[in-house]
């Protein structure tokens, strides 16, 4: 295989590494690959997984939930894979999220997320608390991203299919943590995916470098003061790694590199011709030594580059987007084209074409000729000709907790669902001259019959047409963005009936359902369920609380070794299979 390495790549690596190190690097291509999986600690503790695991596992030193497994184990061909208890991931790819140090409750963006390996890792770290926004600009790859998040049972993720420049207005200064797992020339993947070698050419490195520069600048604008960006690639070229970070630091003086330990360091001496320009400041050159290089000949993994960038508490800096900040009690007034940000209790007023944002959960957005006023906790959005006013705890023309969006001349009305908890955040979307109303009664009946707790109580229930989602709280208005999933997909409300989604089953815990069938993984019916077959199931096997749910008939949550895997419908000794065709065991 070493013979097939592109000659230009070979020469470049010899120049960078030197002959001796290059021989070791080259030898790694003929070594066996390392295989890894990451436990989904959002569903199971590491200890419980290790108790159950049929695989011989060895910890990945740099990833708290990561393990090596032996070639030939095939964890992708085990029923546990279908319960979302782990994600199969190349071990060096586990490093970036580990270094992002995500804490439960944070607002996190995964900017280049598909197919979602790192998004699922972030989700596990968030433990269902906070907001996870995942984005990829490639519409086909987003499908895999959605599926992986659903398999993992993630409840608090929003999936976007956007060009990052279109996200800037909505998410200006919003995120605590951002991961840029950048598109790159993929030199670190040559051993794993030989096709990548054929695609590699010197000019592709430059093309990716241009994209990466843009992504870094865009991410900086969406980061909150004091926030952290992790930038990573699976390539070795300094143009896509050290040079990107050095240039970013020179253009963003309020950012620093947080030095990474336990890995080889970034190489300031590679910031030279013919690979890179040489004009970087001493500060930037020194800082890139704190970035990390994971080499396939120096650890058990394919190869990655990771930089941890922390923004100072003063924020991105006044030069970016002309941001004006004022303290509590102050008043922010902004002219056209300026972004004004103010702290809690501040009133923001804006002129034509201006966007005013304040902290404490308030977003005021006004278009030309409109005046918008809002107190804490309120989101008001008004288009031309509309005047929207809201007091604390109220929304314009809506019930408590509801976000109202009104187009010119239209009226948006929502039904707060008789004040049940978790019902107080339904969004109604109205078009000019129309009213949209979705009755939530079938969903409510399903919950009463099937769910022990209300798993989406801490989320906001939103309806898009007939589809109900539980959306993380604290999200800004996503108006204008291509939203693939505004949250956890709960199911469809159709002709007075509620059809629970597969994503709902995957996001539940067994204890949260009132009617359950739990098959042992060694029971041959487990595999038959995953293949989509109808099963014979005795009434006595349907676990239910006789005080609450007497009947065995109807929907039940199917589990394997007590971990949800999908829905079934039981009737007279038979379980109708609701496992979706695209998910089936083949
Ligand atoms: C290295 S892959 C991401 C892998 C992913 N983080 C994971 O762990 O599964 C890079 C991704 O960036 C996406 N991408 C490329 N250009 C982009 C852009 N300008 N904005 C957002 N995503 C982009 C690609 O479609 C690709 O899915």
Structural class: alpha/beta
- C-alpha termini separation: 31 Å
Ligand list: S-adenosylmethionine
The oligomerization state is single chain
Number of helices: 15
> What is the C-alpha radius of gyration, as a whole number of Å?
26 Å
Low-confidence stretches: 318-436
Quote the beta fraction.
25-35%
Instruction: Output mean pLDDT.
Output: 82
Main pleated-sheet profile? 10 strands, mixed
Helical proportion, percent range? 10-25%
Give the CA-based shape. globular
Q: How many strand segments?
A: 35
Briefly summarize what is shown.
22% of the residues lie in helices and 26% in strands. It is built from 15 helices and 35 strands. The protein binds S-adenosylmethionine.
Molecular structure report:
The two termini are 31 Å apart. The longest helix is centred in the middle third of the chain and has 21 residues, at 202-222. The protein is globular, with a radius of gyration of 26 Å. Among the domains are: 323-466, no CATH class; 513-583, Roll (Archaeosine Trna-guanine Transglycosylase, Chain: A, domain 4), CATH 2.30.130. It has 15 helices and 35 strands. α1 (7-17) packs across α2 and α11 (242-251) packs across α12. The strands form seven sheets. Strands 5, 6, 7, 8, 9, 10, 11, 12, 13 and 27 form a ten-stranded mixed β-sheet that branches. A seven-stranded mixed β-sheet has the order 14-16-18-19-21-23-24, with no helix packed on it. It has 586 residues and is an alpha/beta fold. Mean pLDDT is 82; it is low at 318-436. It binds S-adenosylmethionine. Belongs to the class I-like SAM-binding methyltransferase superfamily. RsmB/NOP family. Residues 414-434 are annotated as: Disordered.
């Amino acid at each position: 295989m070493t013979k097939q390495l592109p000659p230009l790549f070979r020469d470049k690596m010899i120049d960078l590494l030197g002959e001796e190190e290059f021989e070791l690097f080259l030898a790694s291509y003929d070594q066996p690959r390392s295989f890894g999986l990451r436990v989904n600690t959002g569903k199971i503790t590491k200890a419980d997984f290790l108790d159950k695991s049929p695989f011989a596992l060895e910890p990945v030193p740099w990833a708290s939930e990561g393990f090596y497994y032996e070639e030939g184990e095939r964890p992708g061909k085990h029923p546990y894979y279908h319960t979302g208890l782990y994600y199969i991931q190349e071990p060096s790819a586990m490093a970036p999220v580990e270094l992002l140090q995500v804490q439960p409750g944070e607002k996190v963006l995964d900017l280049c997320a598909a197919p979602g390996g790192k998004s699922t890792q972030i989700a596990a770290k968030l433990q269902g608390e906070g907001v996870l926004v995942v984005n990829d600009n490639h519409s086909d790859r987003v499908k895999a991203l959605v599926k992986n998040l659903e398999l993992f049972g993630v409840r608090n993720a929003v999936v976007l299919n956007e060009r990052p420049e279109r996200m800037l207005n909505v998410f200006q200064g919003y995120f605590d943590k951002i991961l840029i797992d950048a598109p790159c020339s993929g030199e670190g993947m040559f051993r794993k995916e030989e096709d990548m070698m054929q695609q590699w050419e010197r000019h592709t490195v430059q093309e990716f470098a241009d994209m990466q520069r843009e992504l870094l600048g865009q991410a900086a604008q969406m980061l909150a003061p004091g926030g952290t960006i992790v930038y990573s690639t699976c390539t070795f070229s300094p143009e896509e790694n050290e040079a990107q970070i050095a240039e970013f630091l020179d253009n963003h003086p309020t950012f620093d590199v947080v030095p990474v330990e336990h890995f080889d360091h970034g190489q300031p001496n590679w910031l030279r011709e013919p690979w890179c320009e040489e004009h970087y400041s001493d500060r930037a050159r020194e800082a890139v030594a704190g970035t990390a290089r994971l080499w396939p000949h120096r650890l058990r993994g394919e190869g990655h580059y990771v930089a941890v960038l922390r923004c100072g508490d003063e924020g991105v800096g006044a030069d970016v987007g002309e941001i004006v900040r004022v303290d509590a009690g102050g008043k922010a007034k902004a002219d056209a084209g300026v972004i004004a940000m103010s702290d809690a209790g501040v009133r923001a007023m804006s002129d034509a074409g201006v966007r005013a944002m304040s902290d404490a959960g308030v977003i005021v957005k006004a278009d030309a000729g409109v005046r918008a006023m809002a107190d804490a906790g309120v989101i008001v959005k008004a288009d031309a000709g509309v005047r929207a006013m809201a007091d604390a705890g109220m929304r314009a023309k809506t019930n408590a907790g509801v976000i109202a969006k009104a187009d010119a001349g239209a009226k948006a009305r929502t039904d707060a669902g008789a004040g049940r908890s978790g019902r107080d955040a339904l969004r109604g979307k109205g078009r000019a001259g129309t009213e949209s109303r979705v009755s939530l009664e079938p969903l409510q009946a399903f919950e009463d019959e099937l769910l022990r707790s209300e798993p989406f109580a801490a989320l906001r229930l939103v309806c898009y047409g007939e589809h109900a989602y539980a959306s993380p709280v604290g999200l800004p208005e996503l108006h204008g963005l291509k939203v693939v999933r505004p949250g956890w997909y709960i199911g469809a409300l159709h002709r007075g009936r509620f059809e629970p989604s597969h994503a709902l089953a995957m996001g539940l815990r067994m204890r949260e359902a009132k009617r359950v069938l739990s098959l042992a993984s060694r029971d041959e019916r487990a595999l038959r369920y995953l293949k989509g077959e109808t099963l014979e199931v005795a009434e006595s096997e349907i676990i239910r609380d006789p005080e609450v749910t007497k009947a065995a008939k109807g929907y039940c949550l199917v589990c394997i070794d007590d971990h949800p895997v999908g829905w079934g419908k039981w009737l007279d000794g038979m379980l109708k299979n609701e496992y979706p065709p695209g998910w089936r065991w083949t």
